Amino acid sequence: xxxxxxxxxxxxxxxxxxxxxxxxxxxxxxxxxxxxxxxxxxxxxxxxxxxxxxxxxxxxxxxxxxxxxxxxxxxxxxxxxxxxx
Length: 85
Prior knowledge:
- By secondary structure, the protein is mainly α.
- It has 4 helices and no strands.
- It has helices at residues 3-18, 44-58, 66-71, 75-83.
């Protein structure tokens, strides 16, 4: 899968699953996703929703702990995680 296409899909996924008040194209690739210091203010339930949908759509399991925090840092890191072997 092409990286930019994947990033656009992930942005749409975040908008759909987390009910953010942004359009997918308004989300920056390196913008912080989870935490109160991010513009979207996503929490642990949002992180779980994203992780479940990533597993369903891309077959990549995001385990708990540091791996999850790193993978869900931004659209960039999530795309890299999905594309990693």
